[in-house]
Design goal:
By secondary structure, this protein is mainly alpha-helical. The protein has helices spanning about 25-30, 65-75, 75-85, 90-100, 110-115, 125-140, 150-175, 185-195, 205-220, 225-235, 240-255, 260-275, 280-285, 290, 310-325, 330-345, 345-350, 355-365, 375-395, and strands spanning about 1-5, 5, 50-55, 60, 65. It folds into three domains: about 1-30, no CATH class; about 65-235 and about 240-250 and about 385-395, Citrate Synthase, domain 1; about 260-365, Cytochrome P450-Terp, domain 2 (Cytochrome p450-Terp, domain 2, Orthogonal Bundle). The mean pLDDT is about 90. Bound molecules: D-malate.
Length: about 425
């Protein structure tokens, strides 16, 4: 191989050019031209102007605004607007945006009939991804190349209808009728109303709960190009419609290594509680994971080598919300014990195994009355503006269809021998 005038020697064997077995590691180390990076772990494989993340320093910004400030001062819809359109809205722009969302919160009754066919024990993420995908069938101009561009309306529909659809699975699991949206309420309160109001009593949304939810959704609104977001961009890069692309993102988020992690955290804390709540024993097991087989969920993060900035905010929010609501959750004590170990035990400190956002979010969701199997659904509602912004950016930039470069590592040519 000759690169920039230099010749590199590699062992080759029989086969076509593409099948020639070259030592990839040598090739990478010597020429620097090829990197195998399964899952785009370390390469700057793509670019974006939406979210800045510095894993070393523990910094996260949406369109230049710090996550700390937004979580404290903004509404979730302001952040959604910022992510999708690039700037914070003026008062007039915000009111127009919010109004458009309010008038689209209802969901086609035929979608309800699809929903009715799901079994009562269906996982809410399976239901959510299916129904979001079904939206493309209800809005066929979303996949009609010749239709006048109605992307803006599809974006509004997604933001407006996702919370409505998300509440249905919970209602079904309780044997309760679904609640129609109450559009005089703000975004978070409307969701809480649809989740928890019963026809037999006058449900009032607790402002503490609504504010906490607003914060949680903002903290989850975008996190640059991770598993689900890259999926949304990749699916959308084939010019697949926005509903299908977002549905694919929801599926990617479902996995326990991604959005499903906070469910795993709560289940882990519950298991520890059921086993007597001996935190020290589990800290030891975590240190000896190879022999104990115990996996500590909610600690460490692929990009954060420092504290996950969202975890700091969410930890404080968890303390505040639980105190304000007077919730005394025994798993919180266990969580605090594990956190103590993470912050002071040299094993965790040297490995920079800090609790991440998933470690605390489940604890707050639980305090707000959200069932464990809905945690990832809450993540999806929060992440929706980020996915939309990333999809829109990819389409606006006219990015080519995604096609990871593959290096073949399989068998060399061989003759077929009949059985
Ligand atoms: C997220 O917020 O999506 C998670 O922290 C996963 C990630 O970004 O890698």
């Amino acid at each position: 191989l000759i690169v920039e005038g230099k010749t590199y020697e590699f062992p080759t064997i029989e086969g076509s050019e593409k099948e020639k077995a070259i030592d990839i590691n040598t090739l990478r180390d010597t020429t620097g031209y090829i990197t195998i990076d399964s899952g785009y772990k370390n390469t700057g494989a793509t670019k974006s102007a939406i979210t800045f993340l510095d894993g070393e320093e523990g910094i996260l910004r949406y369109r230049g605004y710090s996550i700390e400030e937004l979580a404290e001062k903004a509404t979730f819809l302001e952040v959604a607007y910022l992510l999708i359109y690039g700037e914070l809205p003026t008062q007039a722009e915000y009111e127009a945006f919010e109004h458009k969302i309010r008038i689209h919160t209802m969901v086609n009754e035929d979608m309800r009939r699809i929903f009715d066919g799901f079994p009562v024990n269906a996982h809410p993420m399976g239901v959510l991804s299916s129904l979001v995908s079904a939206m493309s069938a209800f809005y066929p101009d979303s996949y009609d190349e010749k239709a006048p561009d109605s992307t803006e309306l599809h974006i509004i529909r997604l933001l407006a209808k996702l919370p409505t659809i998300a509440t249905w699975s919970f209602k079904k699991s309780q044997g309760h009728p679904v609640n129609y949206p109450k559009n005089e309420l703000d975004y978070c309160s409307n969701f809480l109303h649809m989740m928890f109001a019963l026809p037999v009593e006058d449900y009032k949304v607790d402002p503490v709960v609504s504010k906490a939810l607003n914060k949680l959704l903002i903290l989850h609104a975008d996190h640059e190009q991770n598993c689900s977001t890259s999926t949304v961009r990749l699916v959308g890069s084939s010019k697949a419609n926005i509903y299908s692309s977002i549905s694919a993102g929801i599926c990617a988020l479902w996995g326990p290594l991604h959005g499903g992690a906070n469910q795993e955290v709560i289940e882990m804390l519950e298991d520890i509680k059921a086993d007597g709540g001996d935190v020290a024993k589990y800290v030891d097991m975590a240190k000896n994971a190879k022999t104990s087989g115990f996996r500590l969920f909610g600690f460490g993060h692929r990009v954060y080598k420092n504290f996950d900035p969202r975890a700091k905010i969410i930890k404080k929010a968890a303390d505040d919300v639980l105190a304000k609501l007077g919730v005394n959750d025994p798993v919180l004590e266990i969580a605090k014990g594990l956190e103590e170990a993470a912050l002071h035990d040299p094993y965790f400190v040297s490995r920079r195994l800090y609790p991440n956002v998933d470690f605390y979010s489940g604890i707050i969701y639980r305090a707000l009355g959200i069932p464990t199997n809905m945690f990832t659904v809450m993540f999806a509602i929060g992440r929706l503006p980020g996915w939309i912004a990333q999809w829109k950016e990819m389409r606006t930039n006219k990015e080519p269809i995604g096609r990871p470069r593959q290096i073949y590592t399989g068998a060399t040519p061989r003759d077929f021998v009949p059985m």
